[in-house]
UniProtKB/TrEMBL annotation:
Residues 1-20 form the signal peptide. Keywords: Signal. This is Polyisoprenoid-binding protein. Residues 31-203 form the Lipid/polyisoprenoid-binding YceI-like domain. InterPro entries: Lipid/polyisoprenoid-bd_YceI (IPR007372), TTHA0802/YceI-like_sf (IPR036761).
Amino acid sequence: MRNIIASVSVAALIAAPALAEQTLEGVAADTYQLDKTHAFLTWTVRHNGLSGYTVNFTDFDATLEFDPEDLSASSITVTINPMALETNYPDEAKRAEWHTELSTDDRFLNGDEFPEITFVSTSAEQTGDFTGTVTGDLTFLGVTRPVTMDVTYNGTANVPWYGERDLLGFSAETTIKRSDFGMTAMLGMISDETRIEFSGEFLQNE
């Protein structure tokens, strides 16, 4: 009987709706950590002017200081491992070799010499009810330059397995020129403009 009750309880938790609400009311001003299970970060360049070539980062983290009553007081710090990425390379036998080349070759991410990419926000501005911009210092290939992200606040949810803790969702995007950071290999074949896109969830610290 106990096992049946436990199974029902677990099933109820799994089935419990975690409907997000796009509101800032009642959201806690606190520190939030990226939920890595539900976070996605990609960069896309144009290849031969014909297609968008997209690469996924698979190892990154972020800490968000969020103040729903004064969004300009919010801040974020992001760290990215350039050695951890995925592409849609079709040849499974050569896929790991290609990923290593992208990660370590000095024409590309040069991760052996620069093992971390960072973004540290310096300001935030609200542009709409649930949109804003976040400007910060992006350090990539040993070069630090200001970058502004367009950010959308997707809402908040409270799921049973996290108790009273808030779960927040955000999307962000920007376009940078890779040549601004010293990456000039294959310009023309590969576009200078590089689109960066993020979507993820942040969990309030305990």
